[in-house]
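Problem 12. The chain below contains 303 residues. Write out its predicted structure in token notation.
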Amino acid sequence: MSEYGGEVAGAATLGGGVELSRVRQLWHLLEPLHAVLYYAPEVFEEAAALGYEVQERWPTYFPYRAAPLGAVGGERVTSAFYSFSPRMVTEYMAPAWGIASPEVVLAARTRGIDRAYRALFGDRADSPELAEAAALARRAAESANTAGRPLAAANAELEWPESPHLQLWHAATILREHRGDGHIAALLVAGLDPVESLVSFAAIGAASTERFESRGWSAAEWAAARERLYARGLVDTDGSATDAGRALRHSVEQDTDRLAAAPWQALGSDGAARLADLLGEFWVAVLSSGLLPSETTLGIGKV
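Solution.
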């Protein structure tokens, strides 16, 4: 188990002396700092001012996350986000750019994160420690190769904000989308389609079936995916993973860590360790705020 929960990918050392376990740990630390975008009241307020519905998070989640791609439609968002039902994506993307353009949405998300981070971190938002963390995270993000990674590339193409706390969020976003794009590649190699990726993840206990069902797949689609996985020997009749299913998901997570590792090699072992140390207090501040759900579809702390 890593210090911050979750099964680590072993002690394999990459170029630059960075271990895969460090790659996993830095994801655990940075993911909550990015995810503030989808839960902070300040960010919802900015979206509401533009005219988006904020009674639930999905009407803002899709345009906020997709805005770096430009005024794209449901098909391209479905492709990039991968595990969401196309019907769900279309429902929330169809009205998105009629309410506000991607450029206006991007400005709103920056304002929202600025306010949210200042509310979460107080005076520490302007601390030397946060500025140092931002500089290290930015160095990693700027070294990320975004070829074949549409969401990482779209965010990397945006201008860097001036304030260190906003640079930290922007770096965290590039790095999490870089990892996410790589994760989709790993799922494709494993032969797991969008709904199968969720069913197989639920099968190993990464999160409850109910949590995964929030991504819009029907009961019939979920059952059909389970049948396909059963035919491959990956799940039992009750939907729980077989040894082969667990091994496949372990392989997917290891491949994801490997594909996410290159930016951290740019920091080297010492730089990556220093960033992990610096991020700890800000990670604690986000988690202790109660903003983020206790269970997510990412499997942090479970895989």
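Discussion. The radius of gyration is 19 Å. Students who got a different answer should revisit the alignment rule from Section 12.3.
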